[in-house]
UniProtKB/TrEMBL annotation:
PROSITE patterns from the UniProt entry: SET
Residue span, SET domain: 56-195
Organism (species): Hyaloscypha variabilis (strain UAMH 11265 / GT02V1 / F)
Region (Disordered): 1-55
Protein name (record): SET domain-containing protein
Record InterPro entries: SET_dom, SET_dom_sf
Origin superkingdom: Eukaryota
Classification lineage: Eukaryota, Fungi, Dikarya, Ascomycota, Pezizomycotina
Signal peptide: none
């Protein structure tokens, strides 16, 4: 049965599963699960009043500006003014190992290696969150390059007290000593930095 309109955000792709909680890959080991359930020091918690389901702070909007690198696709825009340091929403997708061994024992392979929606959660343990096949509004956040002079938001690790589990969240940049975080005004696109690793891996692919 297809989801009801009120159960998914406006402009959500109808063929893509919408997540309210993270999805766990069947390839996760007991050690991975144990690590996910240990809160790292200094990790911020998701605010207790954060709703599950469509986020009221954002809206998915088709991009029609020819000069925008994501023209013809969609971006995530602020539905209201967001102050510096505001928690926006969690980045939901499939939590998975970044490498896994093929059943025949051949060299390790990473089925998520070519995904444009795969976010690193723990490099040391080899854990990622991939929103390619399923996710929430956060998968529509674009990189600031070619759109603005600098990002206005960032990815930061979070702790979900309700699930007792680590994850990644999207936050408005704080003000900071340099005043780099100005907040996000209603109607502005939420933009982050994908990082050099993302673009370096895609040189020659004709993307971005």
């Amino acid at each position: 049965m297809p989801p009801k309109a009120e159960d998914v955000p406006k402009n959500w792709p109808p063929a893509l599963p919408y997540l309210r909680t993270p999805s766990h890959s069947s390839s996760l080991t007991p050690d991975h699960i144990s690590s996910l359930r240990k809160r790292p020091n200094d990790t911020l918690s998701i605010p207790a009043n954060t709703p599950k389901g469509p986020c009221p702070l954002v809206k998915i909007t088709p991009i029609t500006t020819p000069s925008h690198p994501a023209n013809g696709q969609s971006g995530l825009f602020a539905a209201k003014d967001l102050k510096p340091g505001t928690f926006i929403l969690q980045y939901l997708g499939e939590i998975h190992p970044t490498t896994s061994v093929h059943p025949d024992g051949s060299l390790p392979v990473d089925p998520h290696a070519n995904s444009n929606y795969d976010l690193s959660l723990d490099r040391e343990l080899g854990l990622g969150i991939d929103a390619d096949k399923r996710g929430n509004e956060a998968r529509f956040i674009n990189d600031y390059r070619g759109v603005a002079d600098k990002p206005n938001a960032e990815f930061k690790e979070i702790w979900d007290e309700r699930r007792k589990e680590r994850g990644m969240g999207v936050w408005v940049l704080p003000e900071g000593k340099s005043g780099k975080g100005k907040g996000v005004r209603k109607g502005e696109e939420i933009l982050v930095s994908y990082g050099r690793g993302f673009w370096g891996a895609r040189k020659g692919d004709g993307e971005g």
